[in-house]
Amino acid sequence: MEPDEPGTSAVATEIMPLAFAKGKEKYCELCQREAYLQCAKCQVTFYCNADHQQADWVGVHERICQMLVSIRTMKDIYDPAVRKRNQLRKTHLIKICKLVAQSKLSEGKHEEALPAAHCCLQTSIDLYGPNTIQLVPAYILLAEANMGLGNLAVVAELLSQAEWAVLKNPELGASIQQQLHRSLGHFHTSVGNLETALHHFSNDIYFACEEYGLDSSATTKGYFLIANVFNRQGKATIVHSLYSEVAERWHKHLNSLLETHQKHADSSVSFYEKAQRVEMEEMLRVMLEFEQKQSRRDAALIALIAYNLAMLWFINGDFHKTQDFGSTALQASLQIPKHKLTEPIQELLQQVESLQTEPQPGSD
Amino acid sequence: MKKVLDSFRNRKVSASSILSRKEIALFRNSPKQFMCVEMLQDGYHRSFSELFTLLRTDVEQRANAPPRSPRLQEPPLADQREKLETIRLHLCRAEKAERDGAWTAVCEERLHLGRYFTHPMDLWLSFHFYHSCADRVFGGRSKSATEARFHLAELYRQQGDLLEARDHAERALKQAEDGGWLDPEGRPLRLWGCRELGEIYSLLGEAYLAAQDYDTATMLLQLGSKMAIEGGDKSVEAESFFREGMGLQSSGDHQAAMELFNICAELFGSLQDVKGLVKSYKAIAKSLESEGNIEECIKILEKAADLCQISDLQELLADISLTLGCIYSDVNRPLKSCEYFLQSYKAACTAREVVLQHKAQVKLGHTSVHALIKSYNSEMETPSLTSVKRLVDWKETRGHQDFC
C-alpha cells in the first residue's frame, strides 16, 4: 500500500499489531520497538516506520531479503537434517552481513553499516549462543560502526562484552585478540584514556607480530596507531622514531609494487589492495604533515615519506600529484649531501614527465 | 547485625586491594607478552623488534636441535623472566641513548648484555650482542666496542674458529692502540690484545704444524711468542714458548728447542703450574734423547716423575714412567725398567686410562719375561737333551717368582 519507488525500496505493507496472536508480537528490525510495517517481498521482516525500513533496505536487506525467508519461517526444527541446513544458512547469512558491513565501513558509511552489523550480531547470537567467542568479530564490527558515529557509550558496552568473551576463552587465536585490542585502543583514544589506549595498542602490535610476523602491514598500521597516541601525549621523539620505522617499511613495500607495476602496467587491482593503498596514503599524509611541522626538520625522513607518496600516486596513475610529491622529496633529499634517494626520485620524475608528454600514455 | 550490614555497604574499597593493570598482566600474561607490551608502551619499538627476533631465533634453534641435546635442557628463552627483564632494561636504555645520539652509552649497554650471558647454551646471545656492539656504524670505534671485539676474539678462539678470532683480535688491537684506553685494573687495553693475539697465533701455528706446513707454522709461532711477551701475561708467554719449542723440535732444531723449553720450565715454575712444568721436562727429555744424551734425559724424567708423585698427577705419572721404563730397557737395565713399568701400570689404573694401562701391562710382561729368560738363553739355544731337561726342571720348580 506504500508507493513503490522503482529499484530503491521494497514494498512495505501495513500490519496491525493487535491482529497477532499472544506471544507472537513483531518487533522492528532496527530498534526493537513495536512494528507497524512488514516487508512485502519476504514478509518475515518488520519495521516500526518507513525511515527504518528504508535504512534497512539500503543497509543490508536488499541483499539478504530472500535468504531471510527460509531462515525465519518456523519449520520442523526436530529433524536434524533440517536443523543442519538452517545452521548453514545462518552461517552464510553472517558471512554476507560481515562483508557488507566491512565494505560500507571501508567506504566510511558508518550509518549504513549499522543494519548489516546488527543483523550479523543477532544471527550470531541466535546461532552460537549469548557469550561465545564467535560473537567477538561481530561485536568488534558493530563497535567500529558506532565509533564512527560517535556513540561511545554503546561502543563501551559492546567492547566490554567482547572482552568478557575473550577473557573466558584464553586459548583464543592471536588474530581475534589483535582485532579486539585495536578496537579497544581506538575507543580509549576517542574517550581520552591515553595510557589505556597505549596498553591496548601495544597488545595489538604484539598479537599482530605473533600472527602475521614482524614485517606485516598489520604491524606497520599498529605502529602508526600507537604513534598517534604518543603524538597526543606530546612525546615527539618517540613519534619521530616510530614514523621513520613505518616510512621505511612502506618504502620497501612500495618499491616492490613499483617494480611489478612497471612490468605489467595494466594489472587489475584487488579490492583489498585498493583499501590498503587508501590507508597507506592517509598514513603517509599524516606523517608528512607532522614532520613538516617539526622545528628540527629531519630532511631524510621528509624525503623518504614524500618519495613514498610519489610512488603511490604514480602507481595509482595520478601524475600531477606524483610530480608534486616528487619535487618535495627532491628538495628535501638535496639538502643532504649524497643521499641515496636523490637518484631514484629524479628517475621517477623523469619517467612521469616522459609519460605525460607521450601522446598515448600507458598502452604498450 | 544491621550495623555490620551498614558497614559492608558503606565501606570504601581501598585502593591497595585493587590490582593495577600492570600487576594483572604480570600474572596473567606470559613473560614474553608482558615484556613486549611493556617495551611498546614505553615507546621502545626497536628494542621490541630486536627481542622478538631473538625469541623467534631461539624457537627455531630449539626446533632444529636433535632430541635430548644440551640445547633443549634449559627452558626456552621466552620463559626465563630474569633474562628477559635484563635484556629489556639494557635494550631500552640503549634505544634511549641512540635517540639522544649518545653512541658510547649505546655500546656500553650492549657490551653489558654481551657479558651477562655466560651459560654455554647462551653463547649465541653473547655473540649477537657483541657483534651488534662492535659492528655499529656510529660508535663502533669506542672503548666499549673495542672491548666487545676483544670478547668476540676470545669467544671465537674458544670455539676453535681461529681465522675469525685473528681477524677480530687484530682489528681490536688497532683500535685499542689508537684509543689508548685502560682496562678496569689500570693496564692499557692493548695488552689484552697482545695476549689474545699471542694465544691465537700460537694456536694457528700449531694447526699449521699438524698440517705439516713448517714455514708458516714457524713464522706464526714466533709471532705468537713475540706478542705474548708484549702482553705480559706469564702463562700465555709460557704456553706460546712451549708451542714454539714443539715446532722447533718437529723440524729438528733440538738445541733451540731445549733453550725454549728451559725458559718454559722457569716460567711454569714461577707460576706454580706443575702440569706445565712436567710438560716442559718431558719435552726437554725428548730432545735430549734425540741428541743421544741418555743420562741427562733419565735425570730429567726422574725429576718429572717425582713431581707427578708429589702433586698426584696420575695420568702424567703413568705416561712418564712408561717413557722411563722404555729408556731403561733400551739401555739394558731390566730391573729398573720393570720397576717403572709397574709404577706406570698402577698410575694408569688409578687414573683409569685404559690405553696407558694396556701399554704398561704389555711392556711389563715383555721386559720381565726377557729378564727371566736371560739366564736360560744359552739353554734355549743349544739343541741337546740335557738343556731341555734343565728347562723343564726350571719350569716345574719355578713357581711364581716375584720380580719387584
TrEMBL record, chain A:
Residues 28-65 form the MYND-type domain. The keyword Zinc applies. The keyword Zinc applies. It holds the Pfam family zf-MYND. Signal peptide: none annotated. Keywords: Metal-binding, Zinc, Zinc-finger. GO terms for molecular function: zinc ion binding. PROSITE patterns: ZF_MYND_1, ZF_MYND_2. It comes from the Eukaryota. This is Zinc finger MYND-type containing 12.
UniProtKB/TrEMBL annotation, chain B:
Keywords: Cytoplasm, Repeat, TPR repeat. GO terms for biological process: cilium movement. InterPro entries: Bac_ResReg_Asp_Phosphatase, TPR-like_helical_dom_sf, TPR_rpt. It holds the Pfam family TPR_8. It is found in: Cytoplasm. SMART domains: TPR. GO terms for cellular component: cytoplasm; sperm flagellum. Signal peptide: none annotated. TPR repeats lie at residues 146-179. Axonemal protein which is implicated in axonemal and/or peri-axonemal structure assembly and regulates flagellum assembly and beating and therefore sperm motility. PANTHER family: TETRATRICOPEPTIDE REPEAT PROTEIN 29 (PTHR46630:SF1). This is Tetratricopeptide repeat protein 29. It comes from Poecilia reticulata (Guppy).
